[in-house]
Amino acid sequence: MKRLFAFLAVLFFAFSSFAAKVDTIAVQSTLMKKKIRCIFITPNQTIDTEHFPVVYVLHGYSGNAIRTIEQDIPDLAAQADIYKMIFVLADGGFDSWYFDSPVNDQLRYESFISKELISFTDRNYPTIMQREKRAIYGWSMGGHGALFIAMRHKDLYGAAGSICGAVDFRPFVHAYGIEKSLGDFSSHERSWETHTVSYTASSLKNKELKLIIDCGLNDPLLEINRSLHRKLTELKIEHDYTERPGAHDAAYWSKASAFQLLFIHHYFMQS
After folding, report:
1. How much is the pLDDT for 4?
2. Under a CB-based contact definition with an 8 Å cutoff, are residues 39 and 92 in contact?
């Protein structure tokens, strides 16, 4: 860990003269008939023809894009310059869970991110429009969202990461707004199951996605992350899995984010 942070510090000072561009834009969602606030962080462009890989960043329950760059992962702008990546952050709703709700047509965040937002980003920013240069990661609700979306759209994303992800939310049947998106558990038990990462992982084949999963030892979601790790191992799906001291809070997410972005950067370089 010390070596990683020393490496990041060297890179930070090496690139400190650069200044990533941060745009806040209300992106129209035709599917949900509303505008959604999004933040686009673009690294310093040294030549006009330079294009960059893209990482979509999904916040947790009750979060938003502004809170992400101010509190949860405050060094994203610096990381954009260090790794030469574009970061895209969308307000994912207070409790959307990043899937298309089967009971509420106004909740279509999976389609917004993987169709409308990718299309908007590729039209308006200097992206490399290949799945091998596109990744998605997040924490808590966003950790679930990142893995769920990537597993269902393997043609769009080459890598996905989850930090303290709520990868199986069935223990929380009366909390976190999930009933609003899936209906009550007793009447929609099958739908609850099929919308979890734990279920969706069964569709994976080895090496279809580069995966990294991380959870704190004091996190209440640790056991469901361990369960996902065991399932992926049983399915012989290669993935990077880490447990380290920490709780379900921004201090842990920010530290884990440094590891996940390094992992994603290596994937981009290798691909």
Report:
1. 52
2. no
CATH superfamily of 29-270: Alpha/Beta hydrolase fold, catalytic domain (3.40.50.1820)
- How is residue 146 written in tokens? 């990142």
How many other CB atoms are found less than 10 A from the CB of residue 54? 26
CA–CA dist 173, 266 (Å, integer): 38
Check residue 47 and give its pLDDT: 84
Helix H or strand E encompassing 198? helix 197-200
Q: Sort residue 268 into left (φ over 0), alpha (ψ -120 to 50) or beta.
A: alpha
At residue 9, does pLDDT exceed 80? no
β-sheet bridge partners, residue 58? 138
Q: Which residues contact 198 (CB under 8 A, 6 or more apart)?
A: 167, 168, 224, 227, 228, 231
Q: Say yes or no to pLDDT of 199 above 70.
A: yes
Percent of the chain residues past pLDDT 70, beyond the cut: 93
Strands 34-42 and 21-29: what pairing?
antiparallel
146: left (phi over 0), alpha (psi -120 to 50) or beta: alpha
Residue in this structure with the two tokens 């994976």, named with its chain if needed: 204
% helix, strand, coil for the chain, step of 5? 40, 20, 40
How far is residue 176's CA from residue 84's CA, in Å, rounded to a whole number? 35
- The predicted pLDDT at position 168 comes to 97
Cα distance between residue 222 and residue 30, in whole Å: 37
Average pLDDT over every residue of 126-137: 98
| Cβ count within 10 A of residue 88 | 26
In this structure, the number of other CB atoms found within 10 A of the CB of residue 186 comes to 8
Angle at 59 between CA 164 and CA 258, to 5 degrees: 60
Q: Quick: pLDDT tens for 210-234.
A: 999 999 999 999 999 999 999 999 9
